Amino acid sequence: MTTPDVEGLEQLERAVLNEDASLAAALRQFLLIADYAHQEELRTWALKQLEGYEVGEELPRFREVAATLEITLEPRTPGRPRMEDTRKISSHQLPQSVRDRGIGEDAPIRYGGREMEALIAMGWSLEVRPPGSAEYLAEVTDELGNGSTVLSLHWRVHLTSLRQVLDHIRTRLTLFVAEVRAAMPPGQRNPGPDQIDSAAQQAFNITGGDGTTINIVAPSAKATGDSTATATVDEPSQTPPQPWWHRSSVIWSAIAATAAVAGVIATVVVAK
Predict the structure, then answer these.
(1) Which residue has the higher pLDDT, 85 or 107?
(2) What is the pTM for the complete model shown?
(3) What are phi and psi of 110, to 5 degrees?
């Protein structure tokens, strides 16, 4: 008895290459393919990119983005109006006890794809608070307050960082389609489960275990404790694109097709 081929590759390819369409549509189509192929790890990955990550869950490295550390202060001068002042700081200015908690200049992005797209459409950047920041504001005030009370320690995450995350997801999906196409002989319309497995190994850095279990292997960072975010109006900054890797001419043909539709954005944020 043969295993039926997996349908939906053409729909996924169209959704991935149409950068004017929501990335959520491509992820949902990819989710169907993962289900049809009984690829539980790919299904889990797709759901995380759609729905986001819970606090305390491990994040893929591409969801740890460059961000600017800021503090918001309130002057304590008697008789003067209470006016908040937000300033950029370096992580090296933080008390040693705070730096020991791993607070640096990379911010975790836990949002789902649709949420990120909505924030980009509204033109908002984010203020993302490090885990447990409310617990050590007094220490930050003693170190950096200079007569003022530190009300907030947070990362400023710009729109280019959200675009970077979405672009990484779209590029991974593009690589997956390219790998499946490369594994299919001429005339075959739909891939088989074995071809899906092979493409998953190449496009998502997956290594096979005993032939039945597939584990996604990717650099990751873990954030613990509470992490909250608020949205504020700000303009994004821009930096040169992040490089992608070269596997085969088929992969680069697919990426070139993506660029021909609307252009691939792969930018990172640096502090002003």
Answers:
(1) 107
(2) 0.69
(3) -100, -5
